[in-house]
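Example protein as discussed:

>
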Amino acid sequence: MQSLNFAYICKKIIKMNVKHFCIFILFLCFLSGCDKNPYHKNISGIDADFQTIPFHTEIKKAALNSSDDEFNKLQKKYGDFLNTYISDIRQIMRIPDSCSNKEVLKTFVSDTWINELYQLSDSVLTENQDVWNKKISQALKYYKYYFPDKEIPDFYTFISGVNYSMAIDSNIIAIGIDKYLGANCDFYNSMIMESYIKKNMIPEKVPADVMRAMAESEFPEKFDEDYLLAIMLQHGRYQYFVKCMLPDEPDSLLWGFSAKQMVFCEKSEGEFWKYLISTDNILFTTDYMTQKRFIDDGPFTIVFSKDSPARVGQWIGFKIIESFMQNNPDVSLEELFSIQSSKEIMSKAKYNPK
């Protein structure tokens, strides 16, 4: 493309009104490549076909069928995943071992409470599946960009009585749709549940949670160390993966933080880090309860302000990983997960927030 003549541009700008000037600036941005999102990659030529299999619908149909043929077909199709699912349902519903697997499923899907969940879940699925498919399809194109030789997993929908958001099996990511009915869902309000948990039980969280499940499925190996810093960086690697797969998704959805909490994190990053490096060598503690304070979900991180979100340790871990990848551009995403030492990442990250 020939370069634009600067003098000619200046003359044109002088003659423009404000509206046309703004349009012109946007046009120049397009020509010069104004996209500053470092996570954007050229995925235009990548195909990533997938389908979501309605496992929850199929098990209900098979369980209520008087013939055993449907259940036997189900058993053959889903194998170990179905067996694990039935085992969990047996425990959740406290169904005795003397009941057959088909009887377990029939008891489950015939329950009034579970039937209400089915109706609500199917409604949410109908309303949101197109959006989910679009975002997950886009994310899978990024997945193939970073990991061209890896297979795309199968995706199932399931219902667990509001017990599991995601289930991971061999090359399977299963979405617990009854955990995404909406923060203000009356069904959830009838349960004893903290508000900080309910706020992320929304349909909009599904794409991010699916990608997080994929990260944990593909890269289960942790660092060799078991102290707080290593756990922070492991979570940071997973969240960095999610960010790479969903570069256009708002950070508030990727993290499950409110917009106010995201602003608080950005403004307080230096203070978070100062506390972690100056408090009794806390980054290298192996004390379980101390680690939970910075890693687990909750209303806020107790050692900081109530305006902070929980999981600040995970967020700082992500920022360290992000710094590491920016300062080591030759390291691929797959190579990032092959690093065994958290100290190696820390030494090369050059992380120093102000």
The two ends are 41 Å apart (CA to CA).
